[in-house]
Amino acid sequence: YEYYETSALSVLPNFDALTPVRGGSAGTFDISPRNRDDDFAFRFRAWLRIDTAETYTFYTTSDDGSRLLLNGSLVVNNDGLHPPEERSGSVALQPGWHAIEVTMFERGGGETLTVQYASPSISKRLIPTGNLFRQIPNLVANVPPELAQPAPQIFEEGEPVALQLVSTDPDGPAPHFEARQLPPGLAVDADTGLVSGTPAGG
User: Fold this and answer.
1) pLDDT (tens digit, 9 = 90+) per residue, 29-85?
2) Helices (H) then strands (E): counts for the chain
3) Are residues 47 and 70 in contact, defined by beta-carbon separation less than 8 angstroms?
4) In Å, how far from its chain's centre is CA 161?
5) Which of 31, 58, 105, 202 has the greatest CB tally within 10 Å of its CB?
6) Which residues, 6+ apart, have CB-to-CB distance to 93 below 8 Å?
7) How far apart are CA 152 and CA 3, in angstroms?
8) Which residues are within 8 A (CB) of 45 and not within 5 positions of it... i.e. 6 or more apart?
9) What is the distance between the alpha carbons of residues 105 and 128, in angstroms, rounded to a whole number?
10) Cβ density class 41-53: b for 16+ within 10 Å, e for less
């Protein structure tokens, strides 16, 4: 976020022309890290993760003015001097990352800012902190584990068997082993991958 101290605003300022008093990180659109309760403004910028292709409705409730932009386009215009007031706007979004910017200012009296959204599959709610990111995460593709192919084995009936399976997974947890259609009398240790036992006749 960016926190500004202003004077006698009646509409949102040009934030690019102002110097913030301070900036920092916030998990949501929180106006509590301020020095005073009148004549201040905030600008929040983040990446919003959308999981489902739908039409989303965004809401801001603010005292005084606020705006919400997505990917640089105005979606909610709740500007001006007023008591707590809710306004909304809708936009169709595809799954992925979308730049979200919320601005607000407070001149005098009460001060509040609430940002919510809804869609056909999501009831109206605060935008979850788990969907807001300061930067797009650097996602790394998972490499599947590999099982070393054991050499052909020949065992005599009634003789003990000990066959070690080996698996590698460079970016995963310790492997879990399972085996199907083993001869009667043999079993695999799920943690170690050791196939052992004594084959039964049949």
Assistant:
1) 999 999 999 999 999 999 999 999 999 999 999 999 999 999 999 999 999 999 999
2) 0, 16
3) no
4) 49
5) 105
6) 50, 53, 54, 55, 56, 70
7) 69
8) 99, 100, 101
9) 23
10) bbbbebbbbbeee
